């Protein structure tokens, strides 16, 4: 990787075909690795293993480019990002094909995540000024002679380490918001989806005339570690909790702040007055889509005893014929080969602990594909209930009350997302769930609302992407005061006399010393 700004493409964005580096192999002599189609093992692309030196060069170039990008006003940045949004939209089929080949997920699922990502790009571009722009604030009575304002300034260079399960939607939640806030970005995609990451960087590079606003560095764990220690101003990571801890430790060496999204063990609660058919449909899709490889997908289901058997019959009826396979199936392969062993161990542990298998089971786990597995009466101490499985499995257990459902849902070290199905108590129950996000009578709806924050608590991580919180996450607050007239009480001077001190005490007492009843609207 060279530390020079790429030459702008001469062709209009609308006429450019495949991005140049997506199709071109790395230079001769450069260490490489292959991205493989998990459905059949075919080679999708060959990519460079970028070294620490390459990463440092990319960050240096990003810092140089940040002087230009950060100096643009919100409207100018929005124009570039909305143009990129349009390019992504027109080339959606091309990108979806690449996502399909690198992850194995069906084209329809790839298109869904791209569409959601495009919506987030548009929201971030259009709302950055409103959220981050300078605004006046009240100085208060004691500082009434001051005009006060606050604005949110870009940090500079943001590093993003993305996952393989949603290689467009998930990292875009950091990339788009960091860019809209005025930062440049160095993006390290998963080694399983490097082509997608390079595609995204190449298309934006075309839009901004060849400038290194978004760069992609590819490689294995060493490349990600290099990005952590490269001196970026903030790093956003999505992945496993174990890797997240390593990211935090590496970033701590340079006091680089981090955003961590580290997965979950999300639950779906079904109350006795719920629309059972709708709840079953949502649980099945949330648990099985993308082969269960969804951090905010359902892995546990707690159903009120009054409708438990009805729910189980309904979900089994809806799951009939649902299969994982290479072509024409609604469920694709397990993208990361090592995850197959994790899924197998969780299912086997549940069976050994006394769980009842209604569909699938240990024999449904193949080398590349895992068939849908549904179990009931799964012991709460089994790994199927305590650890993130990240496969197409559902554990469905009955509960005597919603209070029991809430208690079991919260009895986890994770706290990312979840869902509640209830006609009368949905929001009441949702507010008692210890998680960053919960949908009522739907699943993962919060992820599709660009104005809502996305993130978790506990071992699901911290920090937020999406929405106003996501924009501010990639900035620092800049406070400015300006004296409008000489203060009646000069408090910041050695000339302050006893009269001024008494006046200050009196004003403070009048403002804050009395007892007042707090009226909550």
From TrEMBL:
Belongs to the aldehyde dehydrogenase family. Residues 1-26 are annotated as: Disordered. Pfam families: Aldedh. Residues 31-480 form the Aldehyde dehydrogenase domain. Coiled coil: none annotated. CDD domains: ALDH_DDALDH. Keywords: Oxidoreductase. The active site is at 261. This is Aldehyde dehydrogenase. Residues 1-10 have a biased composition (Polar residues).
């Amino acid at each position: 990787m060279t530390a020079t700004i790429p030459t702008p493409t001469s062709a209009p964005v609308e006429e450019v075909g495949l991005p140049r580096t997506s199709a071109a192999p790395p230079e001769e002599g450069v260490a490489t690795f292959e991205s493989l189609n998990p459905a059949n093992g075919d080679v999708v692309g060959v990519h460079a293993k970028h070294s620490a030196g390459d990463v440092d060069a990319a960050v240096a170039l990003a810092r140089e480019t940040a002087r230009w990008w950060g100096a643009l006003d919100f409207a100018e940045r929005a124009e570039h990002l909305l143009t990129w949004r349009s390019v992504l939209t027109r080339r959606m089929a091309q990108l979806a094909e690449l996502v399909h080949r690198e992850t194995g997920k069906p084209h329809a699922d790839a298109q869904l995540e791209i569409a959601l990502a495009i919506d987030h790009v548009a929201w971030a571009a259009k709302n950055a000024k409103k959220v981050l722009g300078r605004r006046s604030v009240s100085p208060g009575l004691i500082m009434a002679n001051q005009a006060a304002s606050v604005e949110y300034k870009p940090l500079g260079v943001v590093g993003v380490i993305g996952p393989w399960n949603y290689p467009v939607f998930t990292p875009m939640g950091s990339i788009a918001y960091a860019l809209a806030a005025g930062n440049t970005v160095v993006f390290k995609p998963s080694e399983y989806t490097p082509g997608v990451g390079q595609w995204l960087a190449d298309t934006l590079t075309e839009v901004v005339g060849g400038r290194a606003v978004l760069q992609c560095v590819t490689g294995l764990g060493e490349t990600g570690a290099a990005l952590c220690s490269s001196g970026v101003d903030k790093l956003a990571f999505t992945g496993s909790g174990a890797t997240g801890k390593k990211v935090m430790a590496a970033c701590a060496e340079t006091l680089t702040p981090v955003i961590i999204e580290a997965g979950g063990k999300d639950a779906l609660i079904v109350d006795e007055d719920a629309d059972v058919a709708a709840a079953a449909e949502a649980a099945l899709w949330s648990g099985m889509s993308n082969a269960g490889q969804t951090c905010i997908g359902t892995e546990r289901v707690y159903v009120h005893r009054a409708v438990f058997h009805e729910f189980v019959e309904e979900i089994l009826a809806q799951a009939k014929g649902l299969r994982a396979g290479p072509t024409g199936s609604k469920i694709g392969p397990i993208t990361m080969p090592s995850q197959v062993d994790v899924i197998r161990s969780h299912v086997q542990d549940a069976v050994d602990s006394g769980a009842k298998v209604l569909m699938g089971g240990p024999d449904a786990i193949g080398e590349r594909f895992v068939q849908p597995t549904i179990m009931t009466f799964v012991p709460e101490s089994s790994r199927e209930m305590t650890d993130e499985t990240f496969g197409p499995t559902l554990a469905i257990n009955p509960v005597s009350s919603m209070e029991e459902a809430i208690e079991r849902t919260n009895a986890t070290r994770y706290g990312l997302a979840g869902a509640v199905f209830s006609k009368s108590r949905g929001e009441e129950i949702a507010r008692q769930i210890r998680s960053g996000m919960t949908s009522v009578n739907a699943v993962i709806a919060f992820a599709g609302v660009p104005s809502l924050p996305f993130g978790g608590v506990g071992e699901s991580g911290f920090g937020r992407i999406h929405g106003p919180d996501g924009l501010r996450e990639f900035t620092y607050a800049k406070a400015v005061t300006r004296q409008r007239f000489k203060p009646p009480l000069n408090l910041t001077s050695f000339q302050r006399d006893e009269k001024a001190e008494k006046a200050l005490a009196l004003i403070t007492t009048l403002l804050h010393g009395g007892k007042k009843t707090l009226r909550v609207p």
